[in-house]
């Protein structure tokens, strides 16, 4: 495993561990998801550079666009949750109250 592969897999694993172990605030989960998406974007971009393939050059841009859409939807949910429940603590959220 090369050092770049190790770096990207470690960054992804740290984001996944952050989601698994620090589930107190919705904002911290969103930040961990963004870190995971950033590591995937960088890995995909470097992979297309290594292959020097023109057909795969648009894939990192699509991933970045989907990541931005996911971030905006997550922040909209964060604002809606903070307005209705008063905080972004995940323990205060109850799906049965909807």
UniProtKB/TrEMBL annotation:
Keywords: Electron transport, Membrane, Mitochondrion, Mitochondrion inner membrane, NAD, Respiratory chain, Translocase, Transmembrane, Transmembrane helix, Transport, Ubiquinone. GO terms for molecular function: NADH dehydrogenase (ubiquinone) activity; oxidoreductase activity, acting on NAD(P)H. The chain crosses the membrane at residues 6-22, 29-49, 61-82. It comes from the Eukaryota. It catalyses: a ubiquinone + NADH + 5 H(+)(in) = a ubiquinol + NAD(+) + 4 H(+)(out). Its EC number is 7.1.1.2. Pfam families: Oxidored_q2. The keyword Kinase does not apply. Belongs to the complex I subunit 4L family. This is NADH-ubiquinone oxidoreductase chain 4L.
